[in-house]
Amino acid sequence: MQVECQRELASYWNFTALARIECSWAVLDVRIWNGIRRPTVHSLVPQTVSMRTEELRVTPEFRLMRAGRFLIAELLIRHRALTTSSGESESLEYIVNHQSCEGAGHREREAYITGLGLEGYHDAVCREIGLDPRITATMGTAANMNYAAICEQQDGDVRATAIVTAGVQGNAACAGDAAGWRETERGWEKIPPPAGTINTMLFVSHPLSRGALARAVITMTEAKSAALTRLAIRSRYSKDAATGTGTDQYAIAAPLAGGKPLTSTSPHVKLGEMIGIAVRDATSEALRWQNGLEPSYTRSLFHALGAHGLHESTFFEDIAPLLPPADLELLRKNAKSVFYEPHAAAAAYAIASILDRVRYGTLPPGTAREALRQQAALLAANLSARPERWPDLLARLTDADPERPAPLVLQAIALGWSSKWK
Q1: Buried b vs exposed e over 336-347: b needs ≥16 C-beta within 10 Å?
Q2: Which among 133, 131, 225, 205 has a CA at the least distance from the CA of 162?
Q3: How many whole angstroms separate alpha carbon 287 and alpha carbon 294?
Q4: Distant-in-sequence contacts of 309-316, Cβ < 8 A, 24+ apart
Q5: pLDDT value at residue 112
Q6: In this structure, which topology does domain 44-294 adopt according to CATH?
Q7: 302, 161, 292, 303: which is closest to 232 by C-alpha?
Q8: Strand runs (DSSP E) across 107-229, as ranges?
């Protein structure tokens, strides 16, 4: 086939060169790596509308592209990488994150993935985008790749870049929660659908020692958990605060050449600080887009107390017996002013904290009922916009059961709302 091509030689980094070949019918890239000609992602990803690539970030070390359901990081120089896909490797050329299924009810896709197994599905993903599975690490999630968040920190000539997709509404968990599945010699038993996942790519622009690369996993994980703490995310499997999800994955990469390897990624050193900020902020930003978890919205009564039985889906049914019909109808019409009232939210979070501290042994169990009544009365007083009525409201709140706190909270909301205009 005769085509007219224009060749443009791109930059050289150490032993790597890229030659871009623009044709009338395709875009081809050729990588010359250690004397071997290899096509790069532009030639391997089909050049169709559904798979058109969008370049998101280019550095001397990597190039990040989005192609439909796929987020593809092409390593432009040799890296040492540590990933949940392939462990430690010095031969990876691509790191791929992708939407493997929808967030709920995608049983056909779940059966397809589990039927192939981990290695088979890895190969299928690489085949779909035309990459060699031997030099590709993959991550899968139900999150939308359009919501990928990129955050970068720099100190001198060292950069830490985090690219995160995140969803926690269906799969948030706390380390130590009761597990729902196990791996045996026969394979997996009772595998849950991956309804929530936090996937992190982390690129450091300077070489790292093997120990520093491994330590970066701890710093990165702590940063991810810090983002969840800031957003007050609770486990879907217990009453504890979430530390991640049950299906989180990561890929960390740093160049093999380019200077003396750095030996620490601890939070006590500047690089550890940079990794922490980049991963924490990228995780928060990804959750804002994927799940709508903007920090100020997490002040809702349900976000504070959902783990303790207060649910928006049943709220009006639950509170109806506690309010006169006219007050209930007025509440329906002005629900958000109650659900997001900041002082009421502060009291709701105080109630949640008391319940946590009693469970963890910080507070004696005998103090729980009175402490809960006091905070519930404060919630009611704040909703009524008459804080001076706190003693009277406290006296009227009687149903304080630490095992079932939702009825107390409903009673406080009803008292506060009905007394606001009286």
Answers
A1: eebbbbeebbeb
A2: 205
A3: 8
A4: 309/404, 309/405, 309/406, 310/406, 310/409, 310/410, 312/339
A5: 87
A6: L-amino peptidase D-ALA esterase/amidase (3.60.70)
A7: 303
A8: 136-141, 149-155, 158-166, 172-173, 182-184, 187-189, 198-204
Q: With beta carbons less than 8 A apart as the criterion, state whether 214 and 164 touch.
A: no
Distance (Å, whole) CA 302 – CA 388? 26
Distance CA 399, CA 395 (A): 11
φ, ψ at 323 (rounded to 5°): -130, 145
Q: Is 162 left (phi over 0), alpha (psi -120 to 50) or beta?
A: beta
The answer to whether 253 touches 79, Cβ cutoff 8 Å, is: yes
Condensed to tens digits (0 to 9), the pLDDT of residues 367-415 reads: 999 999 999 999 999 999 999 999 999 999 987 899 999 999 999 999 9
pLDDT at site 116: 85
**Alpha-carbon distance values, 46 to 52, 54, 67, 125, 189 (Å):** 8, 13, 10, 14, 36
Q: How many other C-beta atoms are found inside a 10 Å radius of the C-beta of residue 403?
A: 8
* CA dist 202 → 20, 178, 233 (Å): 26, 29, 23
Tokens at 377, concatenated: 């009365």
Residue among 293, 62, 41 nearest 161 (CA): 62
CB-based burial of residue 275 (10 Å sphere; 0-12 exposed, 13-18 middle, 19+ buried)? buried
For 306, the token pair is: 């959902």
Q: 112-145, pLDDT tens digit by residue?
A: 888 888 889 999 999 999 999 999 999 999 899 9
Say if CB 38 and CB 28 are below 8 A apart. no
Contact in structure between 193 and 232 (CB atoms under 8 Å): no
C-alpha 239/C-alpha 98 separation (Å) is 30
Of 41, 298, 291, 244, residue with least CA distance to 144 = 291
Which of the residues in the chain have pLDDT under 70?
Answer: 1-51, 169-171, 173-196
List Cβ neighbours of 386 (8 Å cut-off, separation of 6 or more). 419, 420
pTM for the whole structure: 0.79
What's residue 118's pLDDT? 84
Q: Where in the chain is the domain with CATH 3.60.70?
A: 44-294
Cβ atoms 172, 239 nearer than 8 A: no
